[in-house]
Each structure stands twice: as structure tokens, then as C-alpha cells.
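Table S2 (continued). Query chain:
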Amino acid sequence: MLTERTSELARLSESLADCERGRGRVVVIGGGMATGKTALLDALGDLAGERATVLRAVGSRAERDLPLGVITQLLADTGQDVRERAASPLDARALEEIGALLTRSDPLVLAVDDVHLADPESQQVLLYLRRRIASSRVLLVLTERERPNLTRESLHAELVRQPDHRIDLVPLSESGVAELIGDADRAASALALTGGNPFLLRALVEDGLAVGPRFRRAVLDCLTRWDPDFLPVAEAVAILGEESSRELVAELLERSARAVGPVLDALDAAGLLREHRLRNPDVVLESLGAAAAVRLHARAAELLHRRGAPAVEVARHLTAAGEVPGRWALRPLRYAAEQSLVDDAELAVGCLQLALTATEDEGERVELRGALVRAAWRINPSLAVRHLGPLADRRDLSWRDAVPVARLRLWQGEQPCDLLRATRAHAGEPHPRAAAELRIAAEWIHGALPEPAALEVGEIRWQHTAHLMGAWTRDAPGEVLRAAEHVLQSCAGDVLPEAAAAAVLALDHAGHTERAQHWCETVAAQSRRQGATTARALITAVRADMSWRRGDLIAAETQAQEALRLLHSQSWGVLVGLPHSTLILVNSALGRHDVAAELLARPVPEEMAGTTFGVRHLHATGRHALATGRTLAALDAFERVAARMRRGDPAVPTAIPWRSDLAQTYLLLGRRREARDLVAEQLGHDTGGVRIRAIALRVLAACSEPRQRVAVLREAIGLLERVDDRLELARALADLSQAHSELGQLSNARLVLRKADQMAKSCQAEVLPHRLRDHLDPRPEPAPPRAGAPLLSEAERKVAELAARGQTNREIGRRLYITVSTVEQHLTRVYRKLNVRKRTELPAELSRVNDNDDDGRVLQSR
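Corresponding output:
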């Protein structure tokens, strides 16, 4: 059944019935190309069945010079060849004879597809028959491709004039598309791709309702099969894109608008165009030869420039052509680069690269290179380095050109003090915003600037903003909020990767978590919208760091991997330490030690060691060593971190709990006093924020006696709940459970341990030691002792007696030469057997048990 062709089939059926009753009919089917005319003729053949003889033929542009070619097709089954009659003009006798051959069957359906392409002699015969079928049992059905703005040839015009029925086929509606493809939900998208053209729709269905090879082939078939003008006009429309118009297409092809107009109308009627724009321009552009594309784009650029089109539109064609057709092109290329720098950095780079190849003026080349470095930076720092060229050694740059050069050197691990000094001497004081952003970037990457005077400015507000890293280091949340918000609000419309990243992290570390998350999302969305890959990668790495410090390990891993996917490791320069370190920390916490080791084996820039990100990486190395039981390796890494931190004053690593980690390592090595001193030093500092203080308190608890631990750990847990760090909270809860257990408070220990386990599972981390996890497993009740057997084993009795005297688990372990874990296990069984809940009940119960055991032994001896 044909889709949305019910009324058309009904009219054909009616005409066939009239034919059978002796009333001949002429039906003309019109419409755009591939709109289903041939399919309707096929359906007519099915309708006729055995009711009538059906003779069919197809007109062809290739056979227009073959006399009586269409008539020969109609008579193919009869074995008659009438082409010899074409040697002379068709006179009345010849027409009568051919007509008799055609109409000897009764009733008869003559169906000619694309009659406008039939040879003139065949059209003459059909016209002869048409004049004589009114009272015969003949149905003449002709199809033609509708081109309303073109004059028909005389024979064709006479043949299709005033038929008994005219059927005009149009593309399918959305409901028709839904019926054809069998998917109402995807009908709108299919209609947008095909314009409702049944031929294209069937190809789309064959490709699984996606643009695939069959659909692409079908589009090109539509443009090459019917008319030689279709493809060049479609190519011009595809090249012009949004600027396409009837006049511009005609001018691009160097034709008249009068000649181009009917072609556009035909393409529109077929569903290939929508408002003079191709529905599938990529299909046409991909089939266009390279030389033709260059020629058309270059001419399009010139035409648009002559018409006063925006520079960006002209530049798109120039960059697509890859050539500068004249000096006139330099101005739109430079204007377009400036205008598209924020929203389309790739176009800006393309414009500047093209302009650079076409100018020989040295001053102009310096300006172009500076602009090129700025634009390329947004896409990929490695690309910017390749375009740096002679700018790197110049000392006469403007601040506009010097800033991107300085930023590149920062990413490469250098302090560009010489460049900044020379630029200030040559160009004077920098712009306040540029100076503040560059200072923030430099201090975030390298720590305090060796020569900050080069970036000093007179504008007071930007002076305060420029000291964002200093406010962070001093742990001044109010100053951090003002400075960071100033930076982030100033970058609306222009993503500033390092300054924005540093400002977001400063807000987060200073306790302004909601503002940090808001700006993180804002900058991420802005960079994605603008195609600023460098900024997007950097803010994604920042998000990973924030997720790590919230204990959201899976999110941190995903974000860090995404950051490294957006920018290749080589493009990150020394900043690769940010996502790389996060991945090492996450995998160590997840127990994926092989993955963490593989990450540590990856090469990183040597220059990173002298940056704040080198400190991050070294700290992650120590954490991995600690997690894998390599205490001496962890000690080496943490002591190197400590040496770096005590030498300088880098701002970001104040967020690294280096004193606590080093103290924890000292504890494992039995250096208790040194551990306590380090923790006391950390707690005596006002820097580092709530999270660092909480971690320090947890380590302080480990250095303390059991009775002191509980209060210290509870304070740490309260702080960790404030900053919502699930990983560190799980660790602190596990330590609190251990403290309760050592004090004999087993119910509290189990309760806290379950909370620790839940918290650890929420971040999928390996936090709880196996000896603690054992207490979570339900154990069967012990079997009652056999008659005469003592209630407690000898080992259990020794542990219980020492515990009843008030000795701690650790003291019992040292006394009996067993581990604290073994002491805990013995006491757990003792409490269960004696049905006691705390140590103060042990003396009385042990006395009762001893008496019962003595009685049992007496009875047994009897």
C-alpha cells in the first residue's frame, strides 16, 4: 500500500473503470523528482491485473535522439519494431498504423513515465492516440516532472494539456513519514532529513533511520539522475550555506537568476531544499572535488566581500579555500579572527594562519603571530607553542602579545621574569586585568613570583585581586571570596583558564563550596559553548580535584580521565600534574594499586618538579607507597614534600595534608614523638582550611592514648562532616570504632564501624582493615561447653584477667606477646560467653566462672 496516496489511487481506479466502460481517459501525474510517480504507475499495474492489458515505457534524456524509442518500449512484447518508420516524417498513414498496433488489445492501459523526456516522434504518436481515445477502451497515463517556471516543448505541452484527471504528488507529511518508517517518535527528524521524499525515506530506513551510505547515495542520485543542472546548483547552495539566495547562487555559478530559479524550485519540490538551504549539505560537499571546492569557496568569499557581508562569513570561505585571492582578503581575515576569538577559536586560528602566509610586512607578521598564539592557546597549548616562532626571543612586544607568550612559558615550567621586565620597559605598565590574571596564573603554577614588580599596577581593586594566592595562603576566606569573584565575574564571555581554575579552587578551599561549584559549572559550560578546549580541560581537572576532596572517587576518576582526553599529556605541560595526581590518589584509595603504579610510571615533564604540581605529584607518590605498605618509600616522598614546602611558599599545596601524612608515616615507623610534633605544628597553623585540620586531628588521635582518642576523633568527624569528605570521614569513623573497641565499648564500636563501612562503600574505597571488617560479619553463637569443660579457654582467661585489672588491649598484647587484633578477638568471645558489656563487670563474672570451673573439676575427679 502506498503511503498517503489513497485519493490518487482512487482516481486511477475510477479512470480504469471508465476505460472498461468504453470511455477513454487521459491521466497526467505530476510532481517533483522521486516523489512516487513511478510507484503510482506500479500500483496502477496491480489495479489493472487481468482487467486490462498494460503497456509501459519510460522516457530518458539519453534516448531523446532515438526516434520512436518510447513507442518501441510499449510494443516490446508484440515483437513489432516501428523504428524504420522514423526514416521519414511521420505522416497520417504511419501514425494510423502505429496507433493500430498499440490499440489492438481491448481494454488497454498505456503508461509512460517521464513523458517530458520522450523522443518527439513518440510524443507525436501519443498525441495522435490521445485525440482518438474518448470513445475507446484506452487509458493513457503519463507522468512528468513538474517544473512550473519552465516553458514546455510544444508536443509535450499539447500532450499533457487538459487531461481528464491531473494528479499532483507532493512530499509526505509528518504523519505519512511516520507510517512509512513505522516510528512516530522519529518521524519529525526523518522529515527534516528527507523533506518527506519517499525515495530518500526508504534509503534512510535501510540505513536504520540514520544518515548512512544508502541515504548519501540516494541524495546524490536525486541530484545526478534527472537533470544536469541539479548537481552544480546544489553544490553552490552547499558552499554558500546560510548566505544562499537565488541571486547569489546564480552569481556564483555565473548564470542568470532566471536560469537558476527553476532548478531551485525543482529541488525544493523534491524535498532536497528548505528555504533555499540544502537539508543535507555535508553529503554534497563530501562529493565535491578539492579543486572545485577551492574555486567555489574563493569566488564565494569575493562575492560576499563585494556585497558587504560580515567579515566572519567572508573568512569562512577564505579559510575553506585555503588561499588568499588578493590583498583585499587580509582585512576580513584579521577582523574575523578578532571577532571569533572567543566563540570560535578554530576559525580565528585558521584566519590568522592564512593571513600570515600572505603578508611580508615584519610588523604585521609580529602582530599576526601574537594574535595566533592567543587564539591557538584556547584550542591546544602545544599548537600555540608551534606558532610561537620568533616571538619568544623578542623584547619589544606589546603587553597584548607578551601575556600569551608568558603564559606559554609558565605551562612549560619557566618563570618568564626576563620577558615581563623587558615588556614593562618597552610598553609601560600592563593592563590591570591582564597583570592580575597573569600573576594569579604564575603563583598558582610556581608559587610566589621572584620579581612581582613587573606586574604591579596602580589600579587598587585589581591590586587586591592579584593577591588572590596570598589570601588563600593566609587562609583569609573573606579576601579570597572578593578576589576570586572579581576574577570570575570579569571573565564572563571570555574563558581565562589558569585564573578561573585557581579562583574556583581558592573558593572551594576557603569554604565557599557553593560558589566554587557554581563557578565551576559556569566556566565549564562557557568553555564547552565556545569550543575553548584548553579551558574546558583545565576546569574539568579542577572538578576532579574537588570531587577527590569530597570523597567522590568515581566522579573524580571520570573527570580526571576526561581532562586528559581533552588535552594530550604533552599539551598539558607542567599542569599535567593536576589530573595525573588526582588519578593516582583515586586509584590508590580504590585499591587499584597496579593502575596507580602504571600512572606513576608514565613520564612527566622534568620541569614539573619545580612547580606546585610537582609537589602534588610527589605527595600522590607517597600516598600510593603508604597504601601498598612501602613505608620507607612513603617516608622518602613525604620528607621531600616537606623540604619543598618549608623552602618556599607555594599557595595551592597548603591544601595538601603533608604534615599529617608524614606524621602517619612516622607512627608506622615507631617515631611517635616526631609524629606528635608534626601534628602539633599543623594544628598550630591557621592555614590549610577545615579539611586539613580534621585530617591532622585524626593523626593526633592515633598518637594519643585510647581514652583521649574518642574526643579528638569526634572533633575530626564533625569537621569532616562540614566539608563533606566521605573518604576521610570513613577513615576517621574506622579509627573511632577502633578506639571504642580498645576501651571495651563494643556496642559503640560496632555502631560506629557500620557507619564507617557505609561511608567507605559510598565512595567504593578500601578504608577498613580486614580485622575491623571481621567484626561486621555475623558470627554464630558459640556451642555450649561440654560437661566438665571450662567456660573460657586458657588464652581467653589470661586476656580476661589482665583486662579485669584495667590493662589496655595494647598493654595486654605486649604482656602476652600477641597482636592487639588477637586481644580484641579474645575479649569479644569472653564478653559473649560471660554475657557482659563492659570491662568493669569482668572481675565479678570471672570470680563466678572460676568457682564454677573448680566445682566442675571436683565433680569430674569423683
